[in-house]
Design goal:
2 domains, Serine Threonine Protein Phosphatase 5, Tetratricopeptide repeat, 58% helix, 141 residues, 10 helices, single chain, mainly alpha
């Protein structure tokens, strides 16, 4: 029931909209529902950069769940804070590097994500090709 409420937009109304600002967008991003993410961004653009109790934004959730289309959609939004970090200090690019998601790494770099410790995260997690992508891209900028 809770999943249904979140997917279809009743979560805020049922459980307190102010307390859960952005929860619907983050869950839709995590689940990979492009149409529902578009719909939510159109009706609630202020939720774009809101974070949950762990500091994860919709962009970070989409990255962590390897949702390429959702990442691209979120990156296309005006006002996206591509370098916003979660409570553990990881940005979307650092998560993508840690997890070895090369397509998402490329998208984030093209959206001017700061590399921070992304190459190191990729190497630590044995994603050598991801580390090369980050290093090569940053050296050509």
């Amino acid at each position: 029931m809770l999943l249904f409420a979140v997917l279809f937009g009743f979560y805020g109304e049922a459980f307190g909209a102010e307390q859960n600002c952005g929860a619907i967008l983050r869950v839709r991003a995590q689940l990979g529902s492009e149409a529902l993410v578009k719909q939510r961004l159109a009706s609630h653009p202020q939720e774009l950069n809101t974070a949950n109790q762990h500091g994860a934004t919709a962009l970070i959730m989409a990255v962590r769940w390897n949702r390429d289309a959702i990442v691209q959609l979120i990156l296309s939004q005006e006002g996206i804070e591509v370098n916003k970090a979660d409570n553990d200090g990881y940005t979307a690019l650092e998560w993508a590097a840690k997890l070895g998601y090369e397509n998402i790494i490329q998208m984030l770099l093209e959206a001017n994500a700061e590399k921070g410790s992304a190459a190191k995260e990729a190497q630590l997690n044995r994603h050598e090709n991801a580390a090369r992508i980050i290093t090569k891209f940053s050296s050509t900028k």
